[in-house]
Amino acid sequence: SRTQERWNSFLFNAFQKLEDTETRDLCKSGLPPTKRSEIWTILSGAREKRLRDPGLYTYLLIQHLKETDTNVISEIEADLNRTFPGHPILDSKEARDSLKRLLIAVSYFKPEIGYFQGMNFICAALLLLSPDEDDAFWIMKAIIEDLAPYIYTVQMESLILDSLVFKYLVKQHFPELSQHLIKFECHIENYFVTWMISLFLLVFPTETVFRVWDCFMYDRYNVFFAIALALLKLNEKKLIQQTSDFDLFECMHKIGKNILDADTLIKIAYRKFSSALDKKYISKIRQQHQTGLLNELKVTRIRAKITTLQKITDFEYAPLISLYNWYEARPRPNDGSLGDLRPLQEILNREFTDCCIGDFLEFTCVMFHAIQASKEASIFDFKSFICALSAFSRSNLSTRLESCFHFFDIHNKGAIERTHFSTILRILAKFSNSTNEFNHCESFISMVFREAKLQDGKLCLEEFKEHAIKNPLIVDLFKIDKVMD
Is pLDDT above 90 for 22? Predict the structure, then answer.
């Protein structure tokens, strides 16, 4: 056929640039299944990459044998049986072993990314086209580095940002559908991330996906914006007809499963949404909306972080947000001091009236000073701050004693200095409304440090307790258990 002749010509002139319109038209029409893997290797740039470093795949496997990353290997092995279970070609020991080797090599060539969600499905699909692991490896390498670099980034920041770009495109092209999705809290940007992680492999039937990938190999990453919009166009009426969140979510979950007519899907993508294929157009949207999109991304992450802390601490959302805003905006004086902490005290007094944390400010100072002294300020993040606050506001004094001890014992030596014990007891005495007994505490500490077995002038918590349980006033003050763990 004429199409077959044109593809034979393309393969014969593999390294000569063909007319853009001719190559694109060939890709849109669909590649010959028997030549698909070979053509993808050329279109993606994988063949040129392999010529520059032909032994890389074998080298990476040898490196794996020397430097086994058990976490990565465990993740890969766990995903093997979840990758197209029951598939007539892939569901065999030989095929699983081949997929495992391929995933190991892919996870090692770019260590900062490592093993990435969705790689198992993409690599399995590549092995379906060609059992040659080396071919599949180089195409996957080209996808990660050149064809879809926005997907494979640390924490997927670029992909999440582009999901918001897609949300903007949906609003522009489908205003009624966009409002309908919002009404039922159906977040289209989340679906876009899911679709992109597997390069639509889990959205469409396999042959439809391969037709989409034919276009992807030529038009690169941006083709997925157009394909995703075409997918919504084909399902627009059906989605708008859904009158409950359950029905809408069910419809979205199955949105591409029955699309066997790849020609229609691709025609809609290229004719109705050609602007989404334009790199300059998408870049312009990113630039125009970057600040707003990044703020939305930031808000989403903060909301997720606060929600998690709610579950851990039982604090309400509003006070946690107040504390987070203070934490992020707090001054960081160059002289190493803590600066003015009165805003924090105001938040504690205003937001936590139901908790016994009136003097938590002093404990906050203890935490800051201890961590600054250890030169490990990174260990004091917002989560550790809130968890410490929760422990003090919700727990008994014995637990508070242990929390204070561990903040001073930064390097986990198991013992702290006399002055640190003195500070701890002063704070806890305030919590127990027993500040009048502080002089007794000081005398008690002096006695303990004279009689106890010290470690380089420091005392461990258990030995402190052993002396404390012999002192009725201290036992009553700090509610120290008489039965040691």
Answer: no
